[in-house]
Fold this sequence. Notes:
By secondary structure, the chain is mainly α. The protein contains 12 helices and 4 strands. Helix content is about 40%, strand content about 5%. A 4-stranded antiparallel sheet has the order 1-2-3-4. It is globular, with a radius of gyration of 26 Å. Keywords: Metal-binding, Zinc, Zinc-finger.
Amino acid sequence: MSKAILNAVAAVLPKAEHxxxxxxxxxxxxxxxxxxxxxxxxxxxxxxxxxxxxxDALEELTQLNVDAATAFKGYKPEVFCRAxxxxxxxxxxxxxxxxxxxxxxxxxxxxxxxxFMLEDIRNNLMQRLVVKRQxxxxxxxxxxxxxxxxxxxxxxxxxxxxxxxxTDTLFNVNxxxxxLVVDLEARTCSCRKWDMLGIPCCHAxxxxxxxxxxxxxxxxxxxWRQEYLNAYSGSIPPIDGERYWPRIEYHLDPxxxxxxxxxxxxxxxxxxxxxxxxxxxxxxxxxxxxxxxCQVKGHNKRRCPNRESAVxxxxxxxxxx
Length: 321
């Protein structure tokens, strides 16, 4: 909507990677290509970490609908699909949820006058820095708690990997029908999940366990507990209230406030398919419904042709039990 932002980012942050929000792209794409199967294939393609998985998922979409696949490629997958994104950022985020979260965090403050809006944001952030730091100080692990949970999930899947060493740091890993290459020294894996996230994937963890080492040591330093504490070590100083501000004798009036016609806007402009009662959630418009009685797609239980037989069968089973 605001294409001038692209020029500003390119001028101010020339080395920054610019990604598009996959959720908004899906909202536009899904207007034409509807259905649960289309939705699952879209996110399967967008969330693929490597080109092999990306091409397989795209081929699956092409077999289902050639026009849908052509339309998908028209949205420049290079800027919102994980298979093409830069791995130096150590994040696999392909949505603008972070910005939307902060927007919801200051939604009440945005309705106030500029000075009081900034004061509310300052108070909230000042308190947040202290709360987050105190919560992390209670942790005793090397990693942040949420990162440790993700690592434990990968550890559970590592038992399905068969490790074949080439050198002390280079391995072949057989995972079901896949064969991948893991380099512990370069901290890379053919699946690219470790490269992009900075958290060892199950293939890498199997190699780490093969070397009798701890997986936590191979997690990127940005996820370590100490780095988190360093990030939150700063503080925002408190400020006296307006009654204690110094007064000046010079008569200074604020600039006139020009109020435009209509009610002032509080929220961002929402997508036509977004649910107004649940900000950030797309409505179920265009999603193919599934009957809870006969489990057949295309109708619900109210219009189910097999509803009476299902009710009779349920009554018979309850009476016999």
